[in-house]
Amino acid sequence: MSGLAGKCGVIVGVANKRSLAWAIAQAAHAEGAQFVLTYQNERLRENVEELSAMLSPAPVLHPCDVSTDEDIASLFERVDTTWGGLDFLVHGAAFAPREALDAPFVDTSREAFRIALDVSAYSLIALARGAAPLMARRGGGSILTLTYLGAQRVFTNYNVMGVAKSALEASVRYLASDLGPRNIRVNAVSAGPVKTLAAAGVSGFSSILQVYRDRAPLRRNIETSEVADAALFLLGPAGRGITGEVLMVDAGYHVMGM
Ligand code: NAP
């Protein structure tokens, strides 16, 4: 048991059944948590509706493009009217223009850099700002984001997303420091590669999966349920002494030198 039973959350970043955020949503649901699931815009509503219909009771759905302050404000107004407070937030949104993920990094355009950093890193700050007052009403809360080792090391074609993940991980630490006095914890799970929609945008992603299978201490790739279990640990009371942390869930790949 993760201790999330009866807790209220927001989960951002469910695109389809392979999404890491969907694995977390399913695990949180199984533990008895309630949550709002967001979708980026009306075009993508149907996907999330279909998935959420698999859960009973079905989660609340709300549109939220994380690059829009009005959407973020509307999301937390909905949370306020629904529950009057908030216990946890999962941030699983990331995006970089396709051309930035298969061209030489040195050719990254100013616009691609802006978009990648805005959607993939700044959005955590904006969401945390919206969540904090609602969490403070509950005496504290827990925020979790998803990152990748490309924040620290070079992976072919990960490019500007690696820079965005570095900014995201630094934001985890600064937010942890800012929000800790209100008993709000902020952490990240750094997942090994998983073939999702976002990952498919990185040119040559399959070879990254193969390298992990060959070299990770566990000699395999991870499963989304393993990310979800680690997420629940950090979100729930078992993680109550942990904040500002990046927890590696990558079959141990990050410890290897060769
Ligand atoms: P995913 O299923 O494609 O999820 C990415 C999500 O970001 C999608 O739901 C996407 O929504 C959302 N998103 C993009 N732009 C958005 C915006 N402006 N507003 C709101 N949502 C937006 O892929 P995933 O792999 O599960 O990614 C989830 C997180 O895990 C990301 O931060 C990713 O970097 C991280 N991660 C992934 C891996 C991996 O190998 N898959 C490894 C480590 C970390 P739409 O599809 O509706 O646009």
Cross-sheet strand order for the largest sheet: 3-2-1-4-5-6-7
**Main beta-sheet strand count, sense and barrel state:** 7 strands, parallel
> How far do the termini sit from each other?
37 Å
Taken from the alpha-carbon principal axes, the silhouette is globular
The chain-level structural class is alpha/beta
Query: What is the oligomer described by this structure?
Result: single chain
How confident is the prediction overall: mean pLDDT? Answer: 96
Verbal overview:
- This protein is α/β, with parallel strands linked by helices and 258 residues long.
- It is 44% helix and 15% strand.
- The protein contains eight helices and seven strands, in the order βαβαβαβαβαβαααβ.
- It has a seven-stranded parallel beta sheet with strand order 3-2-1-4-5-6-7, with helices on both faces.
- β4, α4 and β5 form a beta-alpha-beta unit.
- α1 packs across α8 and α3 packs parallel to α4.
- The N and C termini lie far apart (37 Å).
- The model has no long low-confidence stretch (mean pLDDT 96).
- The structure holds NADP nicotinamide-adenine-dinucleotide phosphate.
- NADP nicotinamide-adenine-dinucleotide phosphate (NAP) binds next to α1, β5 and α6.
- The site of NADP nicotinamide-adenine-dinucleotide phosphate has 28 residues, from α1, β5 and α6.
